[in-house]
Batch of 4 targets.
Target 1
Amino acid sequence: MTADKARRWANSASLYLVLIIISVISILPFIWIILSSFKPHDELYSKHLTFFPHQYTLDNYLKMFERMVGFGFYYRNSILVSFGTVILTLFAGSLAAYALSRFRFKGDQVIFLVFLGTIMVPGEVGLTTR
């Protein structure tokens, strides 16, 4: 192995190591929340923090479903709206993509750049005050 190859390999290895560390740090709070949802109430609010529950329980989920009247109805509505939005967006996007890729007309590059701009700029930017 030449010195240049060894240097590139070391750079790649260090980059991957940093990316793995950042990924683990980013994912840990989500894992903590999911594991905490399986802890009993006393263990969840005790002074001694533990990562894994000593005793797994589904009581928290049962209480949630008991207290939330109509949860199934709301969940079904959310699923229907989400799937409907995704299907309509895919349909309209595929038609527009086909037209922009196959046909050449005046302004097609402008329309393409507008599509790219709306993808790159999040919708929340429009909600900010001036």
Target 2
Amino acid sequence: MRFFKPNLRSSIHAILSLGHPSVPPETMEMEIDIEDIRRAMLDLMTDVEDARFPQVLRRIRYAPDVPGLWFLRGDLMAALASSHGEAVAREKLETLSEMFEDLLPDGLRSRPSPLSSSFRNSEGSPLARADGTPDSGFKPSS
């Protein structure tokens, strides 16, 4: 008894369905997948002394999915901050975080931080005045 019975129709269907990608080539080049993010994270780790953070490298290398890599950004930030300083590490992680934009569920996306300058200067900030200038929130007592 044969489990797979090849016939002419299934062979032709297999040839035609695999021969042409369903996504246009321009779109295929623009998409970012888990391996692109993993490669970018490992590239950032090349500047860090590998002997001090082997567990971070291992966890990045073997993360099973995009949310797993998302949660490893904190470990990556700690590794980068130890060798470059927090300001440089934050700049490097901002570009990395943009790669996750369409790959995460809504609950895992970054929210604007009240500590960031872009949030303080935004219209929706509780620390922004009506004219758009930032307000420190400090009111001297009279």
Target 3
Amino acid sequence: MKFDQRLTVRAPKEAVDRVLADVPRVASFVPGVEDVKPLGGDDYEGKVRVSLGPMSFRFAGKGEVLRDAAAGTWRLKAHAKDARIGGGVDATIAVQVIAVDASTTDLAIDADVTMLGRIGDMGQPIMRRKAKSMIAEFGKRLQAAATAG
């Protein structure tokens, strides 16, 4: 499932970049994400809880975050599994951080998410709505952090 979304953060790009540089902190802005820990280099591990309709999942996995601060790009490649149901998720998320003006920053998000196993049988419209709501909440939390000082 591929989707693109754009977030506007009412904060200068420099402030947004400072917040985004702390991967465990910024990961906590995504609803359901917890226990993100660095493994060394660009690698991290963590967990995420997601509810889709009447079902809930708890994924545990690893990811690699590649950053190019000068270009304003971020890329996450992650793989996680829910051992209870034998399913998982593969995700590649690319983010372009764009200064709109001195006090506004846009994030252009391009995601490619593949649900594996029984989870993949769920309807894409449900998954797409959930992804949009998670990104919207992430944007609110990022803005609060970037404007907090």
Target 4
Amino acid sequence: MAVKEASKVNRLPNKGTKKKNTAVKSVKPVDFTLCVTVLLLLALGIIMVLSASSPAALAESGNSYKYVSKQALAAAIGLVLMFVISKIDYHTYKPLYKMAYIGSFVLLALVPIIGTDANGAKRWIDLGPLRNISTFRGCKNRINYFFCSIFRRP
């Protein structure tokens, strides 16, 4: 009997006592299917690099995991960056679309001037000890971002 009365008391509406919890931020739900797909493709790519490069790496350096370790390091850095960038609201990128578009054309214009030759073609900008960057790959994404920003719904 006491249990039934207690349950009735809990069902009574609390008038004027609603409190908003402003200290706790809402956490966006994670798309489980997308995360599993990304992780499976990442694992498959690392396995493919291992199977394709293991004999050549063993012959070159005596370490059959030479290229796989580089690929796994790049994958780990990519996963961390993916997590960090997913926490940033995409609306913060809205004012940057014009600068990204102009920057793409500046980088493309710089390739014939400061680009390096590779197999008879200038496609890369040498960053010294870091790496060479391919300007075209980034430009494709930035130009798509620019046109999506222009043609978005108001």
